């Protein structure tokens, strides 16, 4: 079973930056779309960004211009680079790999934006 592990969460001040990493135990990027979701307390999980197997990307409107999604195939890693962070970006961020046959989730990493 392929495993996904997120790294890089933490506490950051408003306006600061963080980079999250999603490391896959196998090279799956040609077979799966990789998503970053987030879930804030009391709110539904929402899609933040995705990168398709062909490499094209999507960013939610709320993070466009501030976040970037990218991947390093050699490292089996997808990154979510976050800048100009706002308190409303506070959430648990989850990595998800999905295709027509499977949906895999990491354990999540907490991002807290606070002064």
Q: Please, could you describe this protein's structure?
A:
The protein has 115 residues and is an all-beta fold. The chain is 0% helix and 50% strand. The strands form two sheets. Strands 2, 4, 5, 6, 9, 10 and 11 form a seven-stranded mixed β-sheet that branches. A hairpin with a 5-residue loop joins strand 5 and strand 6. The radius of gyration is 13 Å and the shape is globular.
Helix content: under 10%
Total of helices:
0
What is the 3D shape?
globular
Radius of gyration, CA atoms, in whole angstroms: 13 Å
The low-confidence parts are none
- Report strand %: over 45%
Largest sheet: 7 strands, mixed
Secondary structure category: mainly beta
- Note the gap between the termini: 40 Å
Number of strand segments = 11
SSE string, helices as H and strands as E? EEEEEEEEEEE
Residue-averaged pLDDT: 96
Sum this structure up briefly.
The protein has strands at residues 4-7, 10-12, 18-24, 33-39, 46-51, 57-59, 67-72, 77-82, 91-98, 103-105, 109-113.
Annotation keywords:
4-stranded antiparallel β-sheet, 11 strands, 7-stranded mixed β-sheet, 115 residues
Q: Secondary structure elements and their pairing?
A:
Layout: E1 4-7, E2 10-12, E3 18-24, E4 33-39, E5 46-51, E6 57-59, E7 67-72, E8 77-82, E9 91-98, E10 103-105, E11 109-113
Parallel strand pairs: 2-11
Antiparallel strand pairs: 1-3, 3-8, 4-5, 4-9, 5-6, 7-8, 9-10, 9-11
């Amino acid at each position: 079973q392929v495993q996904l592990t997120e790294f890089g969460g933490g506490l950051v001040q408003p306006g600061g930056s963080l980079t999250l990493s999603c490391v896959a135990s196998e090279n799956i990027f040609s077979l799966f779309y990789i998503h970053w979701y987030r879930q804030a307390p009391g709110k539904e999980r929402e899609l933040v960004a995705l990168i398709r197997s062909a490499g094209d990307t999507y960013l939610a409107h709320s993070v466009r211009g501030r976040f970037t999604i990218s991947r390093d195939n050699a490292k089996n890693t997808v990154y979510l680079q976050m800048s100009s962070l706002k308190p409303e970006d506070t959430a648990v961020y989850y990595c998800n790999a999905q295709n027509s046959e499977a949906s895999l989730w990491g354990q999540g990493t907490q991002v807290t934006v606070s002064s």
